Amino acid sequence: MITELLKKYQASFAPVVPFDWSKNDFLHLNFTEQNPELELVELQNSQLFSDYVFGKLRAAHASVGVGGYNEHRTIYRRSAHFQQTEEPRCIHLGVDIWAAAGTPVFSPLAGRVHSFANNANFGDYGPTIILEHTLENQLFYSLYGHLSAESLEVLYEGKPIEKGQLIATFGQFPINGDWPPHLHFQLMTDLLGLKGDFPGVCTLSERTRFLQLCPDPNLILGIPGLFQ
């Protein structure tokens, strides 16, 4: 079971981003319907959305925002990308790390480039990288979304990646899928035949299935207080 393997090796993973979570210099950002502030933010306007996110960080004297694996979010109503079926997608399958554009992204363990793409729809991932890893012969994948365009320039499928290697930087809107700068970090045990893309949000009815496919990324990140 990949969850048990991730727990076993948790202390050995390299940081994905250059923040020291032990300093507690981060803010958990709430994008659920329990946050009434979201009703006052014009989420379709990426600049205003970004002003809200980074205004919250400044007010809290935090250098980075985090959230929210398995979170039932309302912010996806901003984009038709999440409303393409009768049941909208609203359950977040990764962990978001909100910080300045240009923030470096590192691979937490060795692997290879499985695939990459620029998913350029409004509200989508923008530039995206998927890495393939193995722990004790157990194959799994890590996804990095909302990157800079430059992050894709020197990649090729099968490219070897070392533990701790710089692989990307946070993108700026509109290149990053038109979001406030952040990294969407997600784990998958099966890519369902996809390349360069994988759902980062699922419907309520698919929640159990996708949470089984997508273990908690905080098993690698190790951010205090984020375990579900």
UniProtKB/TrEMBL annotation:
M23ase beta-sheet core domain mapped to chain residues: 92-189
InterPro entries xrefs: Cell_wall_metabolism_enzyme, Dup_hybrid_motif, M23ase_b-sheet_dom
Keyword tags: Signal
GO molecular function, one term: metalloendopeptidase activity
Coiled coil: none
Record carries keyword Protein biosynthesis: no
Taxonomic superkingdom: Bacteria
Gene3D superfamilies in the cross-refs: Glucose Permease (Domain IIA) (2.70.70.10)
Full protein name: Peptidase M23
